Amino acid sequence: MNFHEYQAKKLFADYGIAVPAGRIARTPEEAVEAAKTIPGDLWVVKAQIHAGGRGKAGGVKLAKNFDEVKQYAAAMLGTRMATYQTAGVELPIDTVLVSEGTDIDKELYLSVLVDRGTQSVTFIASAEGGMDIEQVAAEKPEAIKTINVNYVEGLRPYQCRALGFDLGLNAKQANQLAKIMLGLFKLFHEKDLALVELNPLAILTNGNLAVLDGKVDSDDNAAFRHPDLVAMRDIRQEDETEVKASQHDLNYVTMDGNIGCMVNGAGLAMATMDVIKLEGGEPANFLDVGGGATKERVTEAFKLILSSDKVKAIFVNIFGGIVRCDMIAEGIIAAVKEVDVKVPVIVRLEGTNVEAGKELLKNSGLAITPADDINDGARKAVAAVAGK
């Protein structure tokens, strides 16, 4: 689950990490009132969407007076914004964050994530932060510094200070960095997060470090332990179909193709999409109905797939291990009838009671095309889309 910048900064503050003064607003008038509570004569008006790159897209503006605060807020609120991170999708701007303006001397980058390669929580940092950190990583990998945290020892202050000196910080700044990193490490563990990113972590002209922007992602598998984080969820920032899928405990991700996929098991779902691509097709979605696929879940899965008018065929690829193939077949037949599917449906079944399942599909009287294996199913799905 993703969070807005203002929510991320609230979490930072709760863990002793200093952030610039700021308040959210949902109307231009509220933006002006927010600015009046923040000392100084320079304010930053920032669109709140679940994406980075807002500055390049016009979602970050410096205001020198209250009229400009109102003007910029009015131009953002109620509109939609796409950045290089949204893959062409425009996200709604319902809220802006009005923050204290700061004088920046240098921008750094700092993030925390789980590195599966080293099986550790890892800090990634660079002295070349800002909006183009991805480009820095690609073109100057030597500028990227990492710390793999020992699971037993945890993060030690000396590691943080050493990283600070590697980034060119002085002793005072290195100590400030250590405080920030230790707070982030505690936050990361206690809230079961998947990613924390500070970009930029800035050196101000007064020499102090300041967290000017932050991104936080949590681990959905731990949501039941953190109702406070769940309460921060903004479903308007998420794909509508994916939200509906989560309500039925279905793992669904929207993609750009025209072949709908319904599979049980994440690994098999990934393999199914790969084979469709190899056969020259394009998957319309990732959809894992889970090991306990029932008639109701299969029906909802068909509804989700067909909610996109791009879908021209559906490939159902089920391995009946926990659930018998004949039960899956009954669910598919019932779902096709209830949803009134109008596009070709190709079904590959394998596993327990597979012959009984195939016989049910054969005698259903429905336009369901059987497949012998995953490759055969992918070929038939691609051919159905092509009208062959």
From TrEMBL:
InterPro entries: ATP-grasp (IPR011761), ATP-grasp_succ-CoA_synth-type (IPR013650), ATP_grasp_subdomain_1 (IPR013815), Succ-CoA_synthase_bsu_CS (IPR017866), SUCC_ACL_C (IPR005811), Succ_CoA_ligase-like_bsu (IPR005809), Succinyl-CoA_synth-like (IPR016102). Its EC number is 6.2.1.5. Its cofactor is Mg(2+). Gene3D superfamilies: ATP-grasp fold, A domain, ATP-grasp fold, B domain, Succinyl-CoA synthetase domains. ATP binds at residues 46, 53-55, 102, 107. It is an enzyme of class 6 (ligase). GO terms for cellular component: succinate-CoA ligase complex. Keywords: ATP-binding, Ligase, Magnesium, Metal-binding, Nucleotide-binding, Tricarboxylic acid cycle. Belongs to the succinate/malate CoA ligase beta subunit family. One of its GO terms (molecular function) is succinate-CoA ligase (GDP-forming) activity. Heterotetramer of two alpha and two beta subunits. It catalyses: GTP + succinate + CoA = succinyl-CoA + GDP + phosphate; succinate + ATP + CoA = succinyl-CoA + ADP + phosphate. The gene is sucC. Succinyl-CoA synthetase functions in the citric acid cycle (TCA), coupling the hydrolysis of succinyl-CoA to the synthesis of either ATP or GTP and thus represents the only step of substrate-level phosphorylation in the TCA. The beta subunit provides nucleotide specificity of the enzyme and binds the substrate succinate, while the binding sites for coenzyme A and phosphate are found in the alpha subunit. Pathway: Carbohydrate metabolism; tricarboxylic acid cycle; succinate from succinyl-CoA (ligase route): step 1/1. GO terms for biological process: succinyl-CoA metabolic process; tricarboxylic acid cycle. Residues 9-231 form the ATP-grasp domain. This is Succinate--CoA ligase [ADP-forming] subunit beta. It comes from the Bacteria. Substrate binds at residues 264, 321-323. Mg(2+) binds at residues 199, 213. Binds 1 Mg(2+) ion per subunit. It holds the Pfam family ATP-grasp_2.
